[in-house]
Amino acid sequence: MDKKTILIVDDEEMIRSELAEFLAYLGYATFAAEGHEKALSILAKEHVDFMLVDFKMPGMNGIDLLRLVKKEHPGIIVLFITGDGDDAVITQAMVQGASAFFIKPVSGREIDAVIKKITNS
To answer: Which of 106, 116, 89, 120 is nearest to 52 (CA)?
Structure first.
């Protein structure tokens, strides 16, 4: 079975690196990006199964990135993360096509459990 790939998009390096390391430990191939430009560059070059997208980032917020990704790469399953749990942000993310959302702090185990539930594996 091929490794599933996850692109983690968060402007906080500690979150990116900790999630990437733990998800790799669980058997995923991981990519990490600090914002939309790097994320879009990775998507242009690599196969990505899942994206974990933070809401608050400089340049382009997570909702706008989610909207763009779902338009350009509709097969990618997008999981949304936010630090404040704002119901309006969560609702907007789900309307734009997020498959799930997490409120920070989030663990790699939580993400893995949701991915397995979404993919029935």
So the answer is: 106
This prediction has a pTM of 0.94
Q: Is 106 among the domain residues?
A: yes
Q: DSSP for the chain, please give it.
A: -PPPEEEEE-S-HHHHHHHHHHHHHTT-EEEEESSHHHHHHHHHHS--SEEEEES--SSS-HHHHHHHHHHH-TTSEEEEEESS--HHHHHHHHHTT-SEEEESS--HHHHHHHHHHHHT-
Which CATH number does the domain housing residue 88 bear?
A: 3.40.50.2300
Span 64-112, pLDDT tens digits: 999 999 999 999 999 999 988 889 999 999 999 999 999 999 999 999 9
Is the residue at 1 inside a domain?
Answer: no
Q: How many domains does the chain have?
A: 1
